[in-house]
Amino acid sequence: MQSLLRQILNDVQPLVGEGKVADYIPALANVDPNQFGIAIFSNDGELYEIGDSQVPFSIQSISKVFSLTLAIKHYGDTMWQRVGREPSGLPFNSLVQLEYENGIPRNPFINAGALVVSDMNQSRFATPHYAMREFVRKLSGNPELQTDHKVAESEYEFRYRNAAMAYLMQSYGNFENEVEDVLRSYFSSCALRMSCVDLAKAFSFLANKGFSNISGEQVITQEETRQVNALMATSGMYDEAGSFAFKVGVPGKSGVGGGVIAVVPNRFSVCVWSPALNSVGNSTAGVAALESMTKHIGWSVY
Amino acid sequence: MQSLLRQILNDVQPLVGEGKVADYIPALANVDPNQFGIAIFSNDGELYEIGDSQVPFSIQSISKVFSLTLAIKHYGDTMWQRVGREPSGLPFNSLVQLEYENGIPRNPFINAGALVVSDMNQSRFATPHYAMREFVRKLSGNPELQTDHKVAESEYEFRYRNAAMAYLMQSYGNFENEVEDVLRSYFSSCALRMSCVDLAKAFSFLANKGFSNISGEQVITQEETRQVNALMATSGMYDEAGSFAFKVGVPGKSGVGGGVIAVVPNRFSVCVWSPALNSVGNSTAGVAALESMTKHIGWSVY
Amino acid sequence: MQSLLRQILNDVQPLVGEGKVADYIPALANVDPNQFGIAIFSNDGELYEIGDSQVPFSIQSISKVFSLTLAIKHYGDTMWQRVGREPSGLPFNSLVQLEYENGIPRNPFINAGALVVSDMNQSRFATPHYAMREFVRKLSGNPELQTDHKVAESEYEFRYRNAAMAYLMQSYGNFENEVEDVLRSYFSSCALRMSCVDLAKAFSFLANKGFSNISGEQVITQEETRQVNALMATSGMYDEAGSFAFKVGVPGKSGVGGGVIAVVPNRFSVCVWSPALNSVGNSTAGVAALESMTKHIGWSVY
Amino acid sequence: MQSLLRQILNDVQPLVGEGKVADYIPALANVDPNQFGIAIFSNDGELYEIGDSQVPFSIQSISKVFSLTLAIKHYGDTMWQRVGREPSGLPFNSLVQLEYENGIPRNPFINAGALVVSDMNQSRFATPHYAMREFVRKLSGNPELQTDHKVAESEYEFRYRNAAMAYLMQSYGNFENEVEDVLRSYFSSCALRMSCVDLAKAFSFLANKGFSNISGEQVITQEETRQVNALMATSGMYDEAGSFAFKVGVPGKSGVGGGVIAVVPNRFSVCVWSPALNSVGNSTAGVAALESMTKHIGWSVY
């Protein structure tokens, strides 16, 4: 495994820094693009890591998987009345599709879908973001995980497009709480700072039939685990989900902070991080590293 | 395995006939909806079957996988300049997305994408449909496979929407041959008649790293096999690909003739057939049977 | 003229009450649909009226012409950098087009466009709605004009779709003030209550090269007057602008309160009111009355 | 009048040649962009002209008004079941809107609408293009008018997008004849060659309540004349109809050959020609000339 990580690092080195760090808010724009880390956490409890694998970064959209898991734990199958399970076929923040489909977002990993999921969690928890952070601390075994409030604040300040989506869903009756409140919870969850090691551990239950070796509990059922993985496989990588399945072939989820998490069912979870993004908003070196990984292990789910 | 088939049949029986047989052309509308068959062909060469598993039916869109495989054999990776690999997020025959994306169809399994693939095969073969039929006869080990020319003729007569898509792609420079010629080849391939047994055998190379136990040859490489399966997983089931992944969890492809093929990598290929379709055009009982199957074997790729 | 009004009333009588009173907010839903009134105010200062011509009603979108006029007075030609002058070709509150056109609404008479115009007026006036009401009181010569605060409040409560549009425009940098503030001003202006007589007088400057015989001032220039009339002619009647031009042939603007104002350049302004609306949201009897009018006078601008 | 023409020529001179000659087919691309002509034909039979007013050019989309008039003469009001009367709000050859509106084009001046109108004329005439040319020869009083068959042939060769639209409409049941036949008639009508003088005369009936002083007959009724003018006013100038109404304020129709025709009801018809086009496909100098004209005469229909 360790030699696999070295091979991947070697393959990907020339791509590190290629692309553009997310700069839609100042707080994200200052990250050094020349960072790169990987961590693998296997179902038998081994941790393998290389590069900047312990540097915390803004998890951003990777948080959508945590929110979804939290909502599934409470709402089970009923939640799919408010959000779809189909790939979107359009850029991740498009209002067009939302309008044509009467306020039901296509899946929980586009922004509109994640907002509806946040709205569900808002209805359930008194302080949704603290509930979420507590949940993620337990999954990752790291009680020190912090929210970057400056990032959350800055996202809120530039909330316009997300606000537009939330209000549009409210106009279709698919929003229960105050838009402003849900936006604050949502941005706080996106602003969690975690390292590759933290994330590989926190996602390990998805590689392990829903059981977390870290927290020692069955997080969601085996069937729900397969479902979350299926959603990541079809919709986890913005408008690159199809070619990610084509080239990498395992469920994955990325964030504009440069993190990409992937799940190799029944074997391990892996997190790659490198801040410079390609044109659709996924980490250039991160996606390349996962492609290199599946080439080397000669295996994908398909 | 045989008892699995009996369980599935039992589970699905009440759904057989539920929905609506494809009736956009008269030649398809006359099929008896109360038919149901399954065939499984395992990588170790065993065949399991139940119900109407030897009744030939119109394979329709399932032919898109054969056309794609034929094109991959010749064009390799270069073919992805003319067709994408992303889910479409819109009904299978929409021109809207084609127009917004400048004539490059989203994937080879929506009609526009299949037309481009047919155009590629048209550039390569003198008589593309005969080349295709020969290819499928070898893959299925059934030299008697026939084309239903009445169906092909009838599809051609109502070709308008497909013609519109082909001409639109030609307006963007993404079409090489005469539209009318390609349409005829395309409709002929859709009009192949095959049984569940034929299809399970013909698709077995996709469950077996690209090697066909039937024809005794490596059809495409192991990597290309994973890629075709990945495409089926993200885009094989019209606008139900996501929920098919969510509920069934294996690569699949359906046709309006009521057939659904699924691939369980490294294990077996399976074909289910029942002519009555649900609202998005997939076989009602067919999809339910595959869902029942993955529940019983407690396994999906995810 | 008076006999013309009687003829129109006679023609239209059977249509009064046909359609559906706007019911998206309770405060509008209670209006008696069986009301009908017309008032004509000619350039030589004569007033002609029939039916419920002095009953005040909620002017709703007719207020968009007043807002536009107020903005033109201040911003002149520079305002067209923030809002277009083309018909929209889509229902009046669609976000789709707004997204494709990067937050620049197509014209000032769709909701998005009116919100941008309100945002301009918000930047200019300390209390925009009072400035607007004062302006309209002067134009109509009726110092008693009132705002129906219950209607404004109710619109605000169901502001979701308008909020979505405003935030979407803000995401494109085409909004200067707080969304919530502009929405309040906007809804207050829509909630002005005016009668046919009030409106015919208030719009008379548009029939009179920009000069108001009521307030005794040149409201906007002769050229600007022609421009406002041109905008009403191409975009004033929601998704019925074209057939209104086809059948009636004069600039017009309608509101969901059931009012329709029309301008016969160099001759007179006319306001018709009847609360029941057709399928695109224009007064059924109102549009029919104006059609009857142009038939009887055998004249249109075209 | 003659001095008005000199003033306009003077105003517009710097713009002649600005923009880009239509080059989507070779036969159009070779026109010298530095040409400019105007002809005015008044209701009292006077002809005024300046510049290259007698040079024939390809009338292209201006022919849509002739086709429409021909169809109205035969089908009257029934024709509006197959084509709408609303502005399109999207580029002139978009399939998107056609798909959303089930194959009913928005108006007769976008390509899809003109194809439906051509299909109507195809159902009526044995040799539709000869009927059309004969009609236009009579309207213009020029029996020598010719079709540029090279242009028609070249348009047909690049027919793809128009073919796509026609087939799409056929898929919705809104097309009666063979697509290829209608396309040939359509392109032949677009390929008529006429000068400014020819066009000003041929359009004079629209300025004159439907009566042609040239052919000495009532071409269509007075009411139909107003309707055609209304359609030109709301939809005649591609995606610039609104700002043309705003700036020029009279009904107009343009073609990619660089011609623009305008109708000043009850006074005169005017044709301007200059081949270089602006970004939406209207003659740069042509539109500017008409804007200059309405400024000088201080008059528009609004």
TrEMBL record, chains A, B, C, D:
Substrate binds at S61, N111, E155, N162, Y186, Y238, V256. Transmembrane segments: none annotated. Its EC number is 3.5.1.2. InterPro entries: Beta-lactam/transpept-like, Glutaminase. It comes from the Bacteria. SUPFAM superfamilies: beta-lactamase/transpeptidase-like. It catalyses: L-glutamine + H2O = L-glutamate + NH4(+). Keywords: Acetylation, Hydrolase. Pfam families: Glutaminase (PF04960). One of its GO terms (biological process) is glutamate biosynthetic process. GO terms for molecular function: glutaminase activity. Belongs to the glutaminase family. This is Glutaminase. It comes from Marinomonas piezotolerans.
